Amino acid sequence: MENENRCAFCGIADGVFSACRVWEDPEFLVFLDRNPIRPGHMQLITKAHYSYFDDLPTPLASGFIAAGQMLARRLKAIYEVTRVGFVCTGGDIAHCHAHIVPLHEKTDVTSLRYFEDGILLPTARPAPTLDELEQEARKLR
User: What is the model's pTM?
Assistant: First the structure.
């Protein structure tokens, strides 16, 4: 498969595309989101390609949740938060993944349903440099 047609997350799992890796095992890989909602915002992916969370075989889905719980505990300790968001959206890339975000505010992860008349005014989130992401990854490792 040519790189321009390749699933981005398969490319990251295979080491073809770069990412700030935090943790991995034979089935899963965790890396920092390049446009984080908050510092420590990670992506948990399956190394094998499954388009969506509900496509996972049950034993793999169980491991996926267990990995998310382990990472949430780490985020709580490092960022001193009481809640961590674990969201499988499947919106941007059709490869099973979860956003794992330390929640400082209850609106850190929300829905358009909570906005007046469905209007959401976008604001640019700061995009950290590769060096800043690597510093966060070292802290989380």
Answer: 0.79
Per DSSP, the three-state class of 130 is: helix
- Residue 126 half-sphere exposure toward CB, CA atoms < 13 A: 7
HSE at residue 5, side-chain half, CA atoms within 13 A, is 2
The answer, yes or no, to whether residue 23 has pLDDT greater than 70, is yes
Average pLDDT, the chain: 86
Name the residue with tokens 């060096």: 131
Cβ proximity of 29 and 21 under 8 Å: yes
How far apart (Å, rounded) are the C-alpha atoms in residues 84 and 129? Answer: 23
Q: Where are the alpha helices (DSSP H) in the chain?
A: 8-13, 58-79, 130-140
Strand partners, 79: none
Helices (H) and strands (E) in the chain, counts: 3, 5
